[in-house]
Amino acid sequence: MTCSDDVQKTILRNKLLGRWAAEKLGLTGRDAEVYSDALARGTVEPGRSDVLSTIRKDFDAAGVAESDARILSVMTELMLKAGNLMPTARGDSTDAAAVTLARKLMSK
Questions:
Q1: Cystine design at 1: which of 5, 13, 86, 91 (Cβ 3.0–4.6 Å)?
Q2: What is the model's pLDDT at position 34?
């Protein structure tokens, strides 16, 4: 994988993580999408790439009882999932829409 692939995988992981966190926060619909997009976009914006701290702060403010260990575990699971969704060297993908989304967020 190239550095760009790693960034795209992290963006995708953060998008998936944002969806998970949004559900825990009780966000639905457009609010959940805005939240997950913000986490994903933060991957490429200096000073906003610490998603663990962001989620921890949001969970604490909303009274969501999840440990840092659990958040890190979900982050690891979703990084593996994001890696599986990325195109292979042959150029195929199990989820082209997810890769397109990661590229779109990376270009913002």
A1: 5
A2: 95
